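FORM 12-B: Structure-to-Sequence Request
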């Protein structure tokens, strides 16, 4: 997998110029993302996450002010999901540390896709709340 980022280079014709980063760090990051993708697409993970969301989504409302109980639910969610992904990644990748991966993830600015949307739900409360509200609908 090659990490492509659009580079802005004063191109007057509006052409897109792509820069490829083939560094070992990028290769390792992309390998981890591939593992995470396999994990979150597994039946076991989908069931785990859906059951959690369905269990608590009725408590969420689309109001600007957040209830105190949301924090507890969010903490349970991040612990459950992060713990599951970390356990599965540790089985696939020696010396894996979730905290180091999340730090690296936060340093990358142009990440799109379902994997990153899901990861965002345990690093961003607003994304989590939106996922809960979508489940509620």
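FORM 12-B RESPONSE
SEQUENCE OUT:
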């Amino acid at each position: 997998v090659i990490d492509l980022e659009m580079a802005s280079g004063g191109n007057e014709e509006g052409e897109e110029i792509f820069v490829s980063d083939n560094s070992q760090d990028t290769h390792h990051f992309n390998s981890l993302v591939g593992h995470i993708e396999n994990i979150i697409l597994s039946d076991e993970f989908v069931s785990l996450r859906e059951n959690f969301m369905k269990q608590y989504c009725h408590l969420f409302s689309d109001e600007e002010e957040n209830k105190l109980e949301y924090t507890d639910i969010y903490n349970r969610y991040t612990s459950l999901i992060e713990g599951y992904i970390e356990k599965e990644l540790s089985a696939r990748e020696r010396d894996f540390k979730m905290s180091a991966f999340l730090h690296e993830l936060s340093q990358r600015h142009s990440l799109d896709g379902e994997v990153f949307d899901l990861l965002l739900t345990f690093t961003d409360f607003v994304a989590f709340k939106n996922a809960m509200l979508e489940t509620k609908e």
